[in-house]
Amino acid sequence: MNAPNPSGWRPAMGVAAPEGFESPTVSGDRALMLEEPLIFELREPGTTGVDIDDLELEPLDTLAGFLRAEAPALPGLTEPETVRHYTRLSRQNYAIDLGPFPLGSCTMKHNPRLNEKLARLPGFADVHPLQPQQTVRGALAAINELAVWLIELTGMHGVAMSPKAGAHGELCGLLCIKAAIEARGEDRTVILVPESAHGTNPATAAFAGFSVESIPATADGRVDLAALTAKLGPHVAGVMITNPNTCGLFERDMKAISDAVHAAGGYVYCDGANFNAIVGKVRPGDLGIDAMHINLHKTFSTPHGGGGPGSGPVVLSEALAPFGPLPWTARMADGTVRLIEEEDAATEMPTSFGRMAAFHGQMGMFTRALTYILSHGADGLRQVAEDAVLNANYVLRSLDDVLDAPFGAAGPCMHEALFSDAGLAEGFSTLDMAKGLIDEGFHPMTVYFPLVVHGAMLIEPTETESKAGLDRFIASMRSLAERAKAGDETLKSAPHFAPRRRLDETLAARKPVLTWQG
Ligand SMILES: *Cc1c(COP(=O)(O)O)cnc(C)c1O
């Protein structure tokens, strides 16, 4: 156990004393950049944030002999120390309200404050999943209103609202496909997945009991239609295609792909994580898609990335909707909305594949997404897609003279701009660029994804970033690219100005130390 460290003093790690000063500050803090030890290093045994009287009665041992003999070794902090500890730590974090979050594929949306206001209305915030249905009619009607919008925007037939996030939605879609194939009495065991797919796609297919075969890409970063068609046959249950794909490109052959898959008896799953680039412009139903998850937390705002919940409703075609999960949100003939549960399934949804989640979905996320949709309207949603694509192309064309853009010559991108490490000086990598961005005060872009591009840097600027904000980011990226091309060694040890310097990430991932070892 470390010695108590009452003053919390700790030398600032990694930051050199400013010019003219012999040492960093005594406190370890640098003006408003505050250092903070681990809570266990602040420990002062015996101190607590609350006053609790000593227990005078013998405690009843209802724990079959497992009652603690000694108090747990909890860190002892007063109430103000506890508040300061967590507030100091929170200030070392990056957040969407501090600056751009250029994470490609993650779609860090603008989260309007209006969403939060409505999500906190007691009628939405305080509902309990076990309440009798007749006491939550308003909440169910709101879920149904969102469902109607999702169906309208995608041109699909039905929607399963309960999946908890994108990957869970993928599982829901594939279980629908599995049930549909079983209902036809067929045995199809293969799912085709493009090489550039998000890792969740092959993982989901395997989890659902399918085997995975990969589809190669063409030189311009899209699915190779001829190669895909050649793989189709009576053993193929379906394909999982991301559109726009993870290289930030629209799959122009999508309708031809769907037609070929359907002709061969398979189903088309679309990974809809990038729907924000085409919402209001293209309806997946018109492209022949049978199932697609919508990451509400990517396309329709709702905060994520800091541990906030996701929500991944799955829109389904007429062929797959009857196989959807329970509970299923349905509008009844009298206009009320009801959840079809197991007890009604035999009569009302006999082909459902069953339950895949304990409850009905994320009410807070439904409320935020519905608020976002209603406050934007159909025209506003279309503009969201247009602005996302415009911003990404501005980034692409502002950097493609200093960074390699593997598919840049093929034309405009969609909502994210893809670069590679080709052309950086020997020994310089994408990681150095990402760490340099931290010194510049930006959250790094997505790195080393998609895997089909060596040293990938995937940049997705949120649609609400202004031109001035994008110019600042671009200026930082240009400077980093120039330093990496010129072989500036200082970049290899970035970040220099962050509370912590470059970590051994491999060691941290392989041998994480998750408990305090005093
Ligand atoms: C984010 C993402 C997923 C997974 O979605 P989660 O909500 O994180 O489970 C799947 N595919 C793509 C392309 C994604 O960007």
Automatic annotation (TrEMBL):
Molecular function (Gene Ontology), one example:
glycine dehydrogenase (decarboxylating) activity
Q: Which UniProt keywords apply?
A: Oxidoreductase, Pyridoxal phosphate
Cited Pfam families: Aminotran_5, GcvP2_C
Write the Enzyme Commission number(s) for this entry.
1.4.4.2
What processes in GO biological process is this protein linked to?
Answer: glycine decarboxylation via glycine cleavage system
Residues annotated as domain Aminotransferase class V: 188-305
Q: Which domain of life is it from?
A: Bacteria
Q: PANTHER family attached here?
A: GLYCINE DEHYDROGENASE (DECARBOXYLATING), MITOCHONDRIAL, GLYCINE DEHYDROGENASE, DECARBOXYLATING
Query: What is the protein named?
Result: glycine dehydrogenase (aminomethyl-transferring)
Q: What organism is the protein native to?
A: Novosphingobium arvoryzae
What is the taxonomic lineage of the source species? Bacteria, Pseudomonadati, Pseudomonadota, Alphaproteobacteria, Sphingomonadales
